[in-house]
Every structure is written in structure tokens, then in C-alpha cells.
């Protein structure tokens, strides 16, 4: 009976999309968890009365086999965020300097402040990539940790192999380099450096990976770090027992086995991303070419108002202001249907704005007129191309 039930439930429920908003703000996986992970979750529900493996050894071993490294090189956490926290607790000494890019993943700044460290912030290059030369220059005697988000959230751009090799050769050994590869499964390919290579070379590096993005398990909170043993053992020392629950551990192990699902996820992502970019070009909107499952789009006007307007239409996206990029919105690739919904709403905003411009102001607006202006109209006026 259990099997029959799980057999039914492994199919994602498409009817949900009709009533739910198109959730394109958090880079989640629109296809959901892999069928094998789904089944593992259902079949392990009865274990909810038992404590999980406190050392996460089963799952860490599975991941180590998957990556062909030693089990001691893996440290599991409650999401990549949970591993970031372990890094903060064991390596970000109060008063030390922490180097990271801007705009990038906001949690580097969050932990830097929380730990009483000094942020050393390096702007991205004009083409929205990490400026690794400048970041290497920013590293000094006081630096404890450098974060490299590759590919970068929110800009979706990777650094090249050569750039990362040069950077890793320049950074002094006392500095821990954290390579945040939360989007690795989407981006990986011949041009994309694999941080685990530096772990194999025994460098002072920790690679962050997540089950929240391509593996579709964001709600279960599971991710991992890959590093040389002296780093992973330090992280394990500050990890609380039982931080990764049993469903998350078993689902993560099972997800790794489901290569077919991962391929489907990658295939859909590329298809939908191409479609989105082609439409954006037709609309005359600039965007940053992305190797991830999200695209940063230049909407020109008030990104916060546009995000609010889209939310009212049932489409959730992230405003760039949150990342210090006003005039931009970050949009995850959803299903084709969700992405079309987003593009239709965006197109109608732009069409309305064009009409507004064509008609032009017939006369100078009076003070009273400005007050009477519909909120939507105010939004459209503010939106440039
Ligand atoms: C989503 C994300 C994470 C965190 O992922 P979790 O595993 O859900 O904690 C880490 N880094 C980057 C760059 C992300 O975008």
C-alpha cells in the first residue's frame, strides 16, 4: 500500500500551478524533488520517531562516493547556509577581515557582521563577474576568510578556470577560501571550474554545495561542504548534534542517485532560460547572460514597484534593490508556463508604458492631477527600458 501510494505521489501535481502564484523569487526547482528522493521521504516517514544519524555519516559517505573523495572530506549541514554558519563559528575570528564581492550572496555580509569581523567588499567587474585580481589584492595579514560565489548570485556569471587558478595561486595559505557553488549542478561543464579540484590538491579551501537548488529539496534544509580534513574536522566540532533531520539525510542520499531527474532539471532550465532571454530581447530589455537557473533583468524603472505590481498579478520575483542593483529584477526560471506568465505581465507593463509615452502629456499636470494619478499609472511611468 505504501508503495502504491508513493507511486502516485512521485508525480508532481501540475494542478497546483493553476492556483499558486508563479514563485520565481528564490531560485527553487519547479520540477520538485527527484522521484527517488520523493520515494525515500515517503518510505522513511515512519522513522520520524527516531533520532537521525547524529554524525550524518551515511549521507556523507554517499556524497563522498559521488564526488570520489574521502568521507572525511564531506561535512553535511542544514543547507549550505548551515555549513556557512559552521565556517563563521570556526574560522571567522572577531576582528579579522572577511573579503567578498558586491553584489553577491547577502549571507557573507550577514555572518561578517554577526561575528564582529570587518567586511572588505570588492565590487564586481563591469560585466558582473567576481574581480578575482582585485579580491586577491584585498587579501591581507588580517584576512581570515574569502568568499567566492561561483557562479555568482544574483548576477548568474561564473569566473573562468584560468582566473580561479591564478587566484588560488595568489591567496596566502593562512586564508580560507570558500567557493560557494550552490548552482554548480546547473552551471557545470567544460568551461566551469570545479572547486573540488582544489580540495584534492589539499588547498585551504571549502566548497559549498546545496540540495536546495537543482536537487529541489530547499524545504528540507540540507547541503554540504567539501574540504581537506583539517577544515571539515574543525567544522564538525562546532556542528550541533542532530542538525540535519532524518528525512533530509535520506532524501539527499537518494537524490544523488537520480541522475535522470537531474538531467531533466538541467534540460528544462536551459530550455526555459533560452526562451526567457529570447523574449526579453524581443521586448528590448537588457539582461545578464546566466549559467544558472535565474536571470538578472534590467527593467530600468522602480524595481521595487515593479516587483510589487508583479506580485499583485501572481508572479513573484526578487527586486535588485535588495542586492544594491536598483533598476534590476532577478527572476528564477520556472516551468515554461510560469515563465510565460511572467513574460506576459512584463510585456503588458511595457506596452502600457509605450502607449503612455506615445500619447505624451497634453498639458502640464496640475498638483491635484498628480494626486489623482492611479498607482499603476505611476508605476508604468517610472518604468524605463
Ligand atoms: C541558495 C544559496 C545558498 C544556500 O542554500 P541552502 O542550501 O538552501 O542553505 C548558498 N549560497 C548561494 C549563493 C545561494 O544562492
TrEMBL record:
Q: Report the sequence similarity comment from the record.
A: Belongs to the class-II pyridoxal-phosphate-dependent aminotransferase family. Histidinol-phosphate aminotransferase subfamily.
Q: Which residues carry this modification: N6-(pyridoxal phosphate)lysine?
A: 213
Q: What is its EC number?
A: 2.6.1.9
> Which reactions are catalysed by this chain?
L-histidinol phosphate + 2-oxoglutarate = 3-(imidazol-4-yl)-2-oxopropyl phosphate + L-glutamate
Q: Where is the Aminotransferase class I/classII large domain?
A: 23-345
The gene name reads hisC
Region Disordered, as annotated, extends over 353-385
- UniProt keywords, alphabetically: Amino-acid biosynthesis, Aminotransferase, Histidine biosynthesis, Pyridoxal phosphate, Transferase
* Class of the enzyme per the UniProt entry, highest EC level: transferase
Q: Subunit details for this protein?
A: Homodimer.
Q: Could you identify this protein by its name?
A: Histidinol-phosphate aminotransferase
Q: Does the keyword Nucleotide-binding apply?
A: no
- What superkingdom does the record give? Bacteria
Q: Key word Cytoplasm present in the record? A: no
Q: Which GO terms describe its molecular function?
A: histidinol-phosphate transaminase activity
Q: In which pathway does it act?
A: Amino-acid biosynthesis; L-histidine biosynthesis; L-histidine from 5-phospho-alpha-D-ribose 1-diphosphate: step 7/9
Q: Which cofactor does it need?
A: pyridoxal 5'-phosphate
Organism, by scientific name, is Hyalangium rubrum
Amino acid at each position: 500500500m505504501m508503495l502504491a501510494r508513493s507511486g502516485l505521489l512521485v508525480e508532481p501535481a501540475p494542478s497546483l500551478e493553476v492556483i499558486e502564484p508563479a514563485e520565481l523569487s528564490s531560485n527553487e526547482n519547479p520540477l520538485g524533488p527527484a522521484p527517488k528522493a520523493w520515494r525515500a521521504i515517503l518510505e522513511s516517514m515512519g522513522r520520524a520517531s527516531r533520532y537521525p544519524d547524529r554524525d550524518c555519516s551515511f549521507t556523507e559517505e554517499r556524497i563522498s562516493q559521488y564526488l570520489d573523495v574521502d568521507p572525511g572530506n564531506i561535512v553535511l549541514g542544514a543547507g549550505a547556509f548551515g555549513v556557512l554558519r559552521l565556517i563563521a563559528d570556526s574560522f571567522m575570528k572577531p576582528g579579522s577581515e572577511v573579503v567578498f564581492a558586491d553584489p553577491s550572496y547577502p549571507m557573507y555580509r550577514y555572518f561578517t557582521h554577526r561575528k564582529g569581523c570587518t567586511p572588505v567588499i570588492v565590487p564586481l567587474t563591469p560585466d558582473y563577474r567576481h574581480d578575482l585580481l582585485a579580491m586577491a589584492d584585498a587579501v591581507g595579514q588580517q584576512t581570515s576568510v574569502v568568499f567566492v560565489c561561483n557562479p555568482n548570485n544574483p548576477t548568474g556569471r561564473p569566473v573562468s578556470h584560468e582566473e580561479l587558478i591564478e587566484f588560488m595561486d595568489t591567496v596566502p595559505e593562512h586564508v580560507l577560501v570558500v567557493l560557494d557553488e550552490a548552482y554548480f549542478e546547473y552551471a557545470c561543464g567544460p568551461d566551469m571550474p570545479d572547486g573540488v579540484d582544489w580540495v584534492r590538491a589539499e588547498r585551504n579551501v571549502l566548497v559549498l554545495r546545496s540540495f536546495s537548488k537543482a536537487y529541489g529539496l530547499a524545504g528540507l534544509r540540507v547541503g554540504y561542504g567539501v574540504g581537506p580534513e583539517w577544515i571539515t574536522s574543525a567544522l564538525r566540532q562546532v556542528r550541533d548534534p542532530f542538525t540535519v533531520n532524518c528525512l533530509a539525510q535520506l532524501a539527499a542520499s537518494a537524490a544523488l542517485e537520480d541522475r535522470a531527474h537531474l538531467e531533466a532539471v538541467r534540460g528544462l532550465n536551459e530550455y526555459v532560460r533560452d526562451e526567457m532571454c529570447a523574449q526579453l530581447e524581443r521586448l528590448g530589455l537588457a539582461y545578464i547572460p546566466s549559467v544558472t537557473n535565474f536571470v538578472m533583468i534590467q527593467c530600468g524603472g522602480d524595481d521595487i514597484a515593479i516587483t510589487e505590481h508583479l506580485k499583485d498579478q501572481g508572479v513573484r520575483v526578487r527586486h535588485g534593490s535588495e542586492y544594491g542593483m536598483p533598476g534590476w529584477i532577478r527572476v528564477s526560471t520556472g516551468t515554461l508556463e510560469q515563465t510565460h506568465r511572467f513574460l506576459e505581465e512584463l510585456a503588458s507593463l511595457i506596452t502600457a508604458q509605450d502607449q503612455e509615452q506615445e500619447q505624451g502629456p497634453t498639458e502640464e499636470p496640475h498638483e491635484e492631477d498628480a494626486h489623482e494619478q492611479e498607482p499603476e499609472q505611476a508605476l508604468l511611468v517610472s518604468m524605463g527600458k
